[in-house]
Amino acid sequence: MKSITYLNIFSGIILAAIIALSFGCGESESVVKEPEAPLQPTPTELMQQEVGSLRSQNETLQQQVAKCEVEKRTITARVAELETELAEWKEKATPPAPPIITDRSGVSNPRESYANALRLFNERNYSDAAELIQKVQRSDIPSSLLDNCDYWLGECAYGDHKYSEAIAHFKKVFSYAVSEKKDDAQIMIGNCYKAMGNKTKAKETYEELLKKYPASPFVKRTKEKIEKL
User: Fold this and answer.
1) pLDDT at 92
2) 130-148 burial, b if ≥16 CB within 10 A, otherwise e?
3) Are 157 and 176 a contacting pair, CB within 8 Å?
4) Which of 205, 121, 196 is nearest to 165 (CA)?
């Protein structure tokens, strides 16, 4: 009987061990799991990330713009300061203009009278300016002023809408071997023909300027005039 009891006890112990071992293995198997794949961001999350990035870029750009505005104001203030200084310097360096001669019965100072004539022209007093220029021409003046006188007589006639007379004066400028007014006269002749309604002659005259005086400062303006004819 005792041996049977011991046998039963031993069998129970073995059975308990087997059961415990079975549960342990089950737990171990439940702990070991396959690694989960990382979650991919959703479209909404991607859009939120992009919005955040754009906002950051926008803030950076706004800071750069604000900095540029400050620099611009500084430069503008400096330019205004320099322009004021330049104007003051010119005012100090420029001698006072000679008074306009009201009595033009004679020309004792051709250069002064020439300057007065140009001032009258700038005031659109074309007839008086032309009269004074003609008196300057009859005076003992430097040869360097002769071509200028003919040119400005043409300008005075043009200002008074006397286009044929203006063309005659402008053409006289070409008779001088040396003159800085030749390209000026050329474009003004074209302007006269244009004002007279002769677009063909105007175009021919403008094109002649481009051929004869390719380095003239009037080239760009002349091309624009040709395009508008």
Assistant:
1) 58
2) bebbebbbebebeeebbbb
3) no
4) 196
Query: Which of 85, 92, 152 has its CA nearest to residue 116?
Result: 152
Chain segment 114-125, per-residue pLDDT in tens: 889 999 999 999
| Residue found under tokens 């059961």 | 19
Q: How many CB atoms lie within 10 A of CB 165?
A: 17
Which residue do the tokens 């308990």 mark? Answer: 16
Does the domain made of 162-228 have the CATH classification 1.10.390.10? no
Give me the residue spans of the domains in the chain.
Answer: 55-94, 162-228
Q: What is the pTM of this model?
A: 0.54
For residue 189, give the DSSP letter.
H
- Which residue's entry shows tokens 């992009």? 50
- In whole angstroms, how large is the CA radius of gyration of the chain? 49
Compute the distance between CA of residue 61 and CA of residue 49 in angstroms, rounded to an integer: 19
Q: Taking a C-beta distance cutoff of 8 angstroms, is the pair 133, 112 a contact?
A: no
